[in-house]
Amino acid sequence: MAVFATFWTLEEYLNPTKTQKPKPPFCVTFGSPLIGNHILSHASRRENWSRYFIHFVLRYDIVPRILLAPVSCIEKTFGSIFQSLNPKFKTSIQDSPQAAEFFSSVMRNTASVTSHAACILMGSTNLLLETVANFVDLSPYRPFGTYIFCNGNGQLIVVKNSDAVLQLLFHTAQLSDLAELPEVAKDSISQHLSYEAELEDSLGMQNIVYLEQLEQLPLSADGSDSDVATISAALDGLGLSTRARLCLRAAGELQKQKKKNEEKISKEFEDKAVASMRYLENYKTSCEVQKGTGYYDAFKVQKEENDFQANVKRLVLAGVWDEVIEMLKRYELPDEFEGKKEWIQRGTNFRRLVEPLDIANYHRHLKNEDTGPYMIRARPKRYRYSQRWLEHAKREPKAVPITESSFWAEVEELHSWINSKKAFDEVRERVEQLQRDLKKWTDENELTKDTFSKDPSFIKFYEILPPENKANITALLANVKGF
C-alpha cells in the first residue's frame, strides 16, 4: 500500500505539466514482498522514480522472495507461515519441518526464475530455454527501486540494478551444506521480525557499500586495491559464490550494452535520419511554393524526380525508426530512453513530417481497398510508439485515435464514405470531431493551415460536405489565401 500510494503521489504531484512541484516523497520498506512484474520496474526507471523507493532486505528474510514461487507450490504451509510472521501470534513454527519445507519450496522456485533470467542476461540463444519456460510456471514478479541488503555484520550493500537484485534474492540465501537447512529456514522467518534491531546497529556503523559498476565486480578477494577489497568483502559477507558474481557482472554488462546501443542509434540517426528529414522538409516547402499544392498530394501523384527521391528518404527514415522500435521491444535500450526529451521531440518531428507520406503511399496503391483502413490495418509501430511517447510526456488521459500526423487517413476514409452516397449521419460525428481537431492543431501550431488547404485531396473532401459542415471548415480556413 505504501508503494502504490507513493506511485500515486509521484504521478499526481510531480506531473511535468504542472509548474509547481513539491518535494518528492520517499517510500522506505523493510522486508517488502515483490508487488509487480518487469513492467513496473521498467516504468519506474523510465520516469526516473526508482530513486524514491528504498527497500531494506535482511539476508535470509523469506518475505521478499515469497512471490517468486507460485501459490500452488507453497499453499500447504502458506497460512501457518504467515501466522508466524505476525509478531502478535504467540505460537511459532520456526523450528518445525513446515518451516524447512516452506523455505525449500520458495527457494527452488526462486532458483528457476533467477536461472532463466541469468541465461537471458548472459545472452543464451538456446531454444531449450524458451521451451522450458513454456512448461515451467515461472513467477512474473520482479524487484524495482533501490535495494539495501543487510548482511548481518553491520554492513549495508546498496544495489540499484533490478536484474542484479533478482539474482541477489536467490544467491544471498544459498546453503553451503544441506545440514544448514533447519537453521536457515528458522532465520528466514525470524529475520523478517528483526529489522529494527538490525538497522539500529547497521545505521550506527555507517558501513555502506555501493555496487554500481557491476561489470567490474571482483570474482575473488584482491588486496591490491582498497576499494576492490571492500567490495569483495561485502560480497563475501553476502555469501556470494563465483557463479553469483558472474550473474551480477552479466547484469552490469547488459546495462552497459543498452547504453552502447543508444549511442549507436544516436550516431545512426545523425548519419542517416537528419539529412533525410532535411530533404523532406525542403520537399514539403518546394511543393507548396513551386507547385502550389501540398506535399501530401504531390507525393501521392508521384510525377517528378523529387517525388521519387522523397520516397527514398521516407524509406530510409522508416528503416532507422523501425530499428529503434524493435530494440525497444526487445528491451535493448535503457529504460529511460522513451522519456528523454530529445527522443520524444525527434519522434514527434518524424511522425508529423513522414506519416502523411506513408498514408499517401498507402492510398496511392489502393491498399485501403484490399487491406482496409490505414489506422486499423496498416499503421506502423514507429508512429504508434512515438505518438505514445508524446502523449505520456503531456500526460494525456488516453490515446488519441486521430492525430495531427494521421488525419489524412481520416480524410481519405470520410471522403470515400461520403462520395459513395452512404448515409452521412453515420459519419457525422467523425466529421465534426475532425473539424474540432483541425482547429485545435492549427491553434497550437501543430499544423499550419497550408498543410491541408492546398491539397486537392482535402479540397475534394471539403466540397462534398453538407453546407453546415462546409461552413465550419470555411470559417477555420478563412485567412488562407486562395481557399
Fold and architecture overview:
This protein has 483 residues and is mostly helical. The chain has two domains: 1-240, no CATH class; 272-479, no CATH class. Helices cover 61% and strands 5% of the residues. The chain has 22 helices and five strands. The chain has helices spanning 2-13, 38-46, 63-66, 71-84, 97-121, 127-135, 162-171, 181-190, 195-205, 226-237, 242-291, 295-301, 305-329, 341-364, 367-370, 374-378, 381-393, 407-419, 428-443, 450-453, 456-463, 467-476, and strands spanning 27-30, 53-58, 146-150, 155-159, 207-211. It has a five-stranded mixed beta sheet, with helices on both faces. A hairpin with a 4-residue loop joins strand 3 and strand 4. The model has no long low-confidence stretch (mean pLDDT 87).
How would you summarize the topology of this molecule?
Elements: H1 2-13, E1 27-30, H2 38-46, E2 53-58, H3 63-66, H4 71-84, H5 97-121, H6 127-135, E3 146-150, E4 155-159, H7 162-171, H8 181-190, H9 195-205, E5 207-211, H10 226-237, H11 242-291, H12 295-301, H13 305-329, H14 341-364, H15 367-370, H16 374-378, H17 381-393, H18 407-419, H19 428-443, H20 450-453, H21 456-463, H22 467-476
Parallel strand pairs: 1-2, 2-3, 4-5
Antiparallel strand pairs: 3-4
Helix pairs in contact: 4-5, 5-7, 5-8, 7-11, 11-13, 12-14, 14-17, 14-18, 18-21, 19-22
Domain EDS1 EP: 280-463
Main location: cytoplasm
InterPro entries: AB_hydrolase_fold, EDS1-like, EDS1_EP, Fungal_lipase-type
